[in-house]
TrEMBL record:
GO terms for molecular function: transferase activity. Residues 78-121 are annotated as: Disordered. This is MOD5 dimethylallyltransferase. InterPro entries: P-loop_NTPase, Znf_C2H2_sf. Residues 111-121 have a biased composition (Acidic residues). Keywords: Transferase. Residues 78-91 have a biased composition (Basic residues). The lineage of its organism: Eukaryota, Metazoa, Chordata, Craniata, Vertebrata.
Length: 121
């Protein structure tokens, strides 16, 4: 979440019999405090935010022939079913190439990472 994202508040919603006391009343108090410009009676939830995360990084996944923008998206892509399928396929091809005794094949694909990515400048 960035600076334009309002705070998020957690409310106890598991007991429907206590909906008005546990959810409605605290929610209305929080909204009223914002409208009146005063401090809400409840503490907002702490949101995880990685200061080192680069949302604008560009990486090319050569295995999947895709451009991925952002560190979080890159991490999600490298764990995706599609990417893992391509990675497994490439490893299988490399193993069969080595087993076949291919001359001159070093197995180097020219990528910067084992996962088949190339960072863009």
């Amino acid at each position: 979440p960035g600076p334009n994202v309002p705070p998020v508040y957690g409310l106890e919603v598991s007991d429907l019999q206590r909906w008005e006391e546990d959810v409605l009343k605290p929610a209305l108090e929080i909204v009223e405090s914002f409208i009146q410009g005063r401090e809400p009676p409840a503490e907002p939830l702490r949101m995880e935010h990685d200061e080192k995360e680069n949302k604008r990084s560009h990486r090319v996944c050569e295995l999947c022939a895709r451009l991925i923008i952002g560190d979080r998206e890159w991490a999600a892509h490298t764990r995706s079913k599609s990417h893992l399928h391509h990675l497994k396929k490439r490893r299988k091809l490399e193993e069969s190439g080595r087993a076949g005794g291919t001359v001159g094949d070093s197995g180097d694909t020219g990528t910067s990472d084992e996962d088949g990515s190339l960072p863009l400048p």
